[in-house]
Write a structure and sequence with these properties.
Rossmann fold; seven-stranded parallel β-sheet; 7 strands; binds NADP nicotinamide-adenine-dinucleotide phosphate; alpha/beta; 241 residues
Amino acid sequence: MSLQGKTILVTGAGVRLGRHIAITLAKAGAEIILHYNSSSRDAEETAEQINALGGTAYLIQVDLSDPNKAGDIFNQIKTEKPVYGVVHNAAIFEPLKLPDVTPENWQRHMDINLAAPFFISQAFFKKLKPNAQGRIAMMLDWRALRPGVDHLPYTISKAGLAALTKTLALSMAPRVTVNGIALGAILPPTDNSPDDKLIQSVPLKRWANLDELSQAILFLMDGPEYITGEVIHLDGGRHLI
Ligand SMILES: NC(=O)c1ccc[n+]([C@@H]2O[C@H](COP(=O)([O-])OP(=O)(O)OC[C@H]3O[C@@H](n4cnc5c(N)ncnc54)[C@H](OP(=O)(O)O)[C@@H]3O)[C@@H](O)[C@H]2O)c1
């Protein structure tokens, strides 16, 4: 329970990896500000799971496609407790190649995947009490540092988020550490069955297990304070080939 007494905002925490991250941090003792957009029932279920563990979760609904609403997120939070950390997990991931990209789908990716983490982080930093410390973790993708032709606006938004990780680490030092996890094959998209061909291209030849994600997130939110501006690859070595 090393995060006991600390409050952490997790974006996109109603479903899948965000839910897993929120529950992991709650098990470590953190109170969770559980953000969602459209998955209200799933978000309530996640909060119920956290409550059943003896934890606390505050639900908050915000559409992060509007950067103004993203920046305003802390004004909607129904707890007076100071926020210690933010996990930027919410994102969209659309299979768009060069001919498919439009100004609209490009902008949507930039707003949700890049502008929202920036404006939430800015608001978090402005609200931080004098002398308080904090932590930010960005959910990146191995594609962020090794862009290819698939998921083009997604990849560019995550590459921007990798750059933002470093610039925020400098801008917020020495009070807030800012790091990222570049994920590989963790959970297949809901519209895809697990792709064995994909796994053949992963040097470690398997999907991650979610416990490995838990360990990585706890390392960044509760591990050594002297690490900042770092991007850890949790991708079975996929970025190496
Ligand atoms: N799954 C993987 O193997 C994998 C691999 C590499 C990187 N990642 C990264 O890990 C993170 C989580 O992945 P995932 O597979 O769990 O993602 P996911 O299933 O696609 O979930 C996306 C999350 O983003 C939220 N979201 C989407 N649009 C939003 C909007 N307009 N406003 C607010 N929230 C919005 C959703 O909230 P609602 O459902 O409430 O709308 C949902 O919680 C993402 O950043 C992703 O890029 C995942």
